[in-house]
Write a structure and sequence with these properties.
The complex is a heterodimer.
Chain A: E1 2-4, H1 23-27, E2 43-49, E3 55-61, H2 63-67, E4 71-76, E5 88-90, E6 93-95, H3 97-104, E7 109-110, E8 116-122, H4 125-134, E9 136-141, H5 148-152, E10 176-184, H6 187-192, E11 196-203, E12 216-221, E13 227-231, H7 236-247, E14 254-258, H8 273-284, E15 288-291, H9 294-300, E16 307-315, E17 321-333, H10 340-346, E18 355-364, H11 378-396, H12 400-407, H13 426-434, H14 437-440, E19 448-457, E20 463-470, E21 476-480, H15 488-500, E22 507-511, H16 528-555, E23 562-565, E24 568-571, E25 580-582, H17 583-588, H18 590-593, E26 598-604, E27 613-623, E28 630-640, H19 647-666, E29 697-702, H20 724-736, H21 747-768
Parallel strand pairs in A: 1-29, 2-15, 13-14, 17-18, 21-22, 28-29
Antiparallel strand pairs in A: 2-8, 3-7, 3-9, 4-8, 5-6, 10-18, 11-16, 12-13, 12-15, 16-17, 19-27, 20-21, 20-26, 23-24, 24-25, 27-28
Helix pairs in contact in A: 3-7, 10-11, 11-20, 12-13, 15-16, 19-20
Chain B: E1 5-7, H1 12-22, E2 26-29, H2 35-40, E3 48-51, H3 56-59, E4 61-64, E5 68-72, H4 77-81, H5 84-89, H6 91-98, H7 103-108, H8 111-116, H9 124-130, E6 134-139, E7 142-147, E8 152-154, E9 157-158, E10 165-171, E11 178-185, E12 196-205, E13 208-217, E14 224-225, H10 227-233, H11 240-253, H12 264-288
Helix pairs in contact in B: 10-11, 11-12
Classes of the chains: A alpha+beta, B alpha+beta.
């Protein structure tokens, strides 16, 4: 893997590839995941789910179920307080506690197939399951609304009776929760100035993150009102905030202990099992474990939105983009809150365009409430724009990467939603891909094609805390509240080791529960290595400051007279008699110099845009002309990664996002029947790529340091998922002559397009004769 | 509580006795690769699962050049495709068995179980139909034989009556200059259920086809024997025209549905594509025999 050295030649630990400290526990099966916790007297919870996509709940009877031996408690929405309706900012998301509560346990109505209606705690999972069959729910089925197009039609069935938006006014029930618009310049004049204008329409399917570990939580409730939940989540503090809001308890009364996590990709940034496990624990007085099956995960946790998109872009014949218009409707699922806003904020932000109009709609439909998914909103949005750019490049006869480079955003470019870019690496990223061996290699053979596309994700900052403890033997531990989802334990230890001058294996990273570390936002938005890394850097610097104070005390000088370099404290030779002490020697004397040294720091690094990242990808495909099946032959991704703290894990992020983008492009989709019931509720028929469907994914790390971070770190986790679907569509076009504008580009859909294309060509040929 | 009793008879008589006694509430289990999933999903809720892996008559694999293959209903797929004799004489059946699941699943799953599960999309059933296989059943009223193409009556349902058990599959010996093949289409390269599966067995004398059988999976409520398409090949020169003609007749017989694995239109199209590809593969093998 090529690593373009630009930033970290000055570092000792940063930029190396040590073995991850949590690796041995994970490969030996000792690491505890969500479902691995057992406690004395523990009961098992199971959730009864709606078989209807849209229905009113007329009654729920559970006397029979309660009489089944072994059943200890049953809960419904009646056991939850009516939560606050006003949306609140929680980390990266706006959440209405009321809607969140209604999603945890349905209140009055069920809004999707799989919506939780009641939950049972019993002495065994089998008894709990049996009890579910004995609960009688009387439903009045209503007409389901499955797509944004249907939901936006006048007279469409309304999902949420009191939902209103500003445009339609306070008297108009609607399924449109929000309309967002960004404008710049004079759109009409911009299109007039273009030599070539292309307008196209796109659709993408609902897709799931596909994390391998299903959700699992154990709730424990103490009689004094304090509670603990062990859970697999991307954000223990987020769980604490959300669960206490839903349960109507003081935030400080809940301790959240995060388990190891078997994937999340944004999908574990909200709550599902946690309040149910706690509620059942409160009612029974026993610990209660609630675990989801794969089918529950697919039916009822948050996938990301399918969207409907229209894109119009104009360019001059020299390749200058003069105007762009994008219209997008995102399916939010059952409650407001699709990733429409980040979609609109990223859709064309890679380019410096004088005239713009972007419209986004957040629309409720009878599908599960969407949740974040890697660069939320950006992949579906980029599919349209990056396909149209490919068409434009072809029309005016320039290289598609050159079109992107010519119009690329750079330091000083204003983003459509306001902020001006600081130092970014979009153009460097496109140039790196253009210079790659892959892009310059010859692709030969029938039915093969090569496509490129680019993507943008702003990355988040938010709040993090860190503590660094120096042990008596001079080793250190680094404590953070960031769940380790992508190797962040290694990165945190490396940052502390870099500052403290310690070997990496003398720094132990720890992920603490919510009672044991300061507030830390969710592991999402590619923010951990950036923001938590900054907190760790500052906390280690706090240690260094204290070490200098201790040394100064011993040497009877001021701390300013002490230097710290690579683990050694020295007096500044120009001022004083030379003195020297290693960190280890000093640690042994903590007892006589003021006690243990504890470094701590907290940071609030702002919201979106903390470290903008760009990716560009080149994909070779081969299409079976008889079946419409696409093989990915070769993939190379270049990404602006800032300083790569641990290059292997950075490469892993690029590869993982690319793999998910390939799945999104080719076969992944939610398939509902005519009544709105999900048909593919397992990984057999929800088709993520297997290792046999993917080539080795080649990576190019473009290290343009982020000026807002002491080590130059940018978020690296998400943007890699953005360009693959468009790049694959562009490659399919070059292989077959067919432009695909709907995802997934699955064999039945591509075969149909190929046949239509052949028929129209035959038609044209016949007309020509 | 829903109670489940596990029985493990060691003789056919015992097994038939248990199955007959409990009727619809009993279900034979071999590898359980379908049944356990159906039980977990609540699709089938038997009170008695009757493990048939301990009955010798069900686990044997015996080939005789004169009488053909006796394939025990519970013989695991892995023993089929690790068997050199079977690889030589029935390569299509072997490739169908090889497609089922991972190594772990292949060690449990059986061709008999694949058939008894009654799925229209079973991989080995079109291969069995192509070979003209016959199922031997034993029940409280004695024994009977049923052609494999008549074995499945609707999705998930077969001709098996309460108390009856599939003992073995009887497959004729391959005639000289013949071979079989099985090809399915799936959207990925692994892990999928067939969108369409086609099995074919043909005999070639010179460039003429003297016998042909085509089996089709996932194109109708049950696996089908493509009788017209097969007949059309017999006695003709085996060339592109004949293959295309057979493919068109196979498409005409298919009555697929739209579902999460493919549209009806796409499936009909695939019947043509796979019939051509499977016949060509079988012919290539036959020319070497």
């Amino acid at each position: 893997m090529a690593v373009k050295k630009e930033a970290h030649h000055k570092y000792r630990v940063v930029g190396t590839r040590p073995i991850r400290p949590d690796g041995i526990e994970k490969v030996t099966g000792r690491a505890l995941y969500g479902a691995d916790y057992y406690f004395p007297g523990m009961l098992f919870g199971k959730i009864l789910r709606s078989p209807y996509a849209h229905a009113r709940i007329k009654s729920i009877k559970f006397d029979k179920a309660l009489k089944l031996p072994g059943v200890r408690a049953i809960v419904t929405a009646d056991d939850l307080p009516e939560a606050d309706r006003k949306p609140q900012q929680m980390g990266e998301q706006q959440v209405s506690p009321y809607y969140l509560s209604c999603n945890v346990l349905a209140r009055g109505k069920v809004l999707y197939d799989g919506h939780p209606v009641a939950a049972v705690a019993a002495t065994s999972p089998h008894i709990a399951e049996e009890a579910l069959r004995l609960i009688e729910v009387d439903y009045e089925p209503l007409e389901p609304v499955m797509t944004a197009d249907e939901a936006m039609k006048p007279g469409a069935p309304i999902l949420i009776d009191d939902l209103r938006n500003q445009e339609e006014g306070p008297d108009q029930p609607t399924n449109v929760a929000t309309h967002l618009q960004f404008k710049r310049g004079d759109l009409a004049a911009g299109f007039d100035a273009a030599d070539c204008v292309i307008e196209r329409e796109f659709r993408t399917a609902t897709v799931h993150q596909g994390y391998i570990e299903p959700h699992a939580s154990v709730g424990i409730w103490n009689p004094d009102g304090h509670a603990t939940v062990y859970t697999c989540t991307q954000g223990s503090f987020t769980v604490r905030t959300l669960a206490t809001k839903v349960l109507g308890m003081p935030e400080g009364n809940l301790k959240v202990v995060p388990s190891e996590i078997g994937g999340g990709f944004g999908g574990k940034t909200t709550i599902y099992c946690e309040p149910i496990a706690l509620l059942l624990a409160k009612k029974t007085g026993h610990p209660v474990k609630v675990t989801m099956s794969r089918s529950e995960v697919l039916r009822a946790t948050g996938p990301t939105s399918g969207i409907h998109e229209r894109v119009k872009i104009g360019v001059t014949k020299e390749g200058r983009i003069t105007a762009a218009q994008v219209w997008m409707a995102y399916e939010a699922g059952a409650f407001p809150g699709s990733p429409m806003a980040p979609g609109a904020m990223t859709v064309i932000t890679s380019y410096d365009i004088p005239n713009l109009l972007i419209d986004g709609y957040d629309v409720v439909v009878n599908r599960p409430k969407t949740c974040a998914y890697r660069a939320p909103g950006a992949t579906a949005a980029a599919f349209g724009v990056e396909t149209v750019l490919d068409e434009l490049a072809e029309q005016i006869g320039i290289d598609p990467l050159d079109l992107r480079i010519m119009n690329g955003a750079h330091e000083g470019t204003q983003q459509p939603f306001g902020p001006v870019f600081k130092r970014i690496g979009f153009i460097e990223t496109c140039e790196a891909l253009k210079a790659s061996e892959h892009y310059n290699s010859k692709l030969t053979g029938a039915n093969r094609g090569r496509g490129v596309a680019a993507g943008f994700w702003f990355n988040a900052g938010f709040q993090s805390s860190a503590s660094v403890y120096v042990n008596q033997d001079g080793t250190a531990s680094v404590v953070t509240g960031s769940v380790d989802i992508g190797g962040s334990r290694a990165s945190m230890a490396m940052i502390a080791a870099e500052v403290l001058g310690l070997p990496i294996d003398e720094v132990r990273p720890v992920v603490a529960d919510t009672d044991s570390i300061g507030y830390t936002d969710v592991t999402a938005g590619s923010r951990v290595t950036f923001a938590t890394g900054m907190a760790v850097y500052n906390a280690a610097q706090d240690v260094v400051r204290q070490l200098k104070e201790r040394a100064a005390k011993m040497w009877e000088c001021t701390p300013d007279d002490v230097e710290f370099d690579n683990g050694v404290l020295r007096t500044r030779g120009d001022v004083l008699q030379p003195q020297q002490l290693t960190l280890k020697e000093l640690a042994a004397r903590f007892i006589r110099t003021g006690g243990p040294v504890v470094g701590r720091a907290s940071v609030s690094t702002g919201g979106a845009g903390a470290g903008p990242a760009f990716a560009a990808i080149c994909v070779d495909v081969e299409v079976d002309p008889d079946t419409g099946k696409v093989q990915i032959l070769r993939v190379t991704i270049a990404q602006d990664v800032g300083t790569a703290i641990h290059p292997s894990y950075v490469e892993g992020q690029l590869q993982g996002g690319t793999a998910q983008g390939i799945g999104w492009a080719l076969n992944e989709e939610y398939v509902y029947d005519s009544k709105g019931v999900l048909r593919n509720t397992g990984l057999l028929d929800y088709r993520m790529p297997t290792c046999l469907d993917l080539p080795a994914i080649e990576t190019i790390l473009v290290e343009v340091p982020n000026p807002t971070h002491p080590l130059g770190v940018r978020g690296v986790g998400e943007v890699s998922i953005v360009p693959p679907p468009a790049a694959i569509a562009n490659a399919i076009y070059r292989a077959t002559g067919v432009r695909m504008r709907e995802l997934p580009m699955s064999p039945p859909r591509l075969m149909k397009a190929l046949q239509e294309h052949r028929n129209s060509r035959e038609g044209q040929a016949a007309a020509g004769r | 509580m829903h109670e489940i009793h596990y029985e493990a008879p060691t003789s056919l008589e015992q097994a038939v006795g248990i199955l007959a006694k409990h009727g619809d509430s009993a279900r034979p289990i071999c590898g359980g690769t379908d049944l356990l999933i159906q039980m977990r999903a609540g699709v089938r809720r038997p009170h008695y699962v009757v493990d048939v892996k301990h009955i010798a008559a069900l686990t044997g694999i015996a080939f005789d050049p004169k009488s053909g293959l006796r394939l025990g209903a519970a013989a695991p797929c892995i023993e089929i495709f690790e068997n050199a004799t079977l690889r030589r004489h029935y390569p299509g059946l072997v490739e169908a068995a090889h497609l089922i699941g991972s190594l772990q699943i292949q060690s449990r799953a059986s061709v008999g179980g694949n058939l008894c599960n009654g799925s229209p999309a079973a991989d080995t059933t079109p291969a069995l139909i192509a070979l003209g296989a016959v199922a031997r059943l034993v029940g409280p009223k004695g024994e009977r034989q049923v052609k494999v193409e008549e074995f499945v009556v609707s999705p998930g349902r077969t001709v098996i009556q309460p108390g009856e058990l599939l003992v073995e599959l009887l497959i004729p010996p391959p005639p000289p200059h013949s071979a079989d093949a099985y090809i399915r289409f799936i959207p990925r390269n692994e892990m999928d259920i067939a969108v369409v599966g086609i099995g074919a067995a043909i005999t070639l004398e010179g460039d003429r086809c003297t016998a042909a059988r085509i089996g089709m999976g996932a194109v109708a409520p049950t696996p089908l024997f493509a009788a017209k398409a097969s007949q059309a090949l017999v006695g003709k020169k085996f060339d592109a025209v004949a293959i295309e003609n057979a493919a068109q007749l196979a498409i005409e017989q298919a009555s697929p549905i739209d579902d999460m694995r493919g549209t009806a239109e796409f499936r009909r199209h695939l019947v043509g594509v796979l019939t051509r590809r499977t016949l060509e593969r079988a012919a290539e093998r036959a020319r070497r025999n």
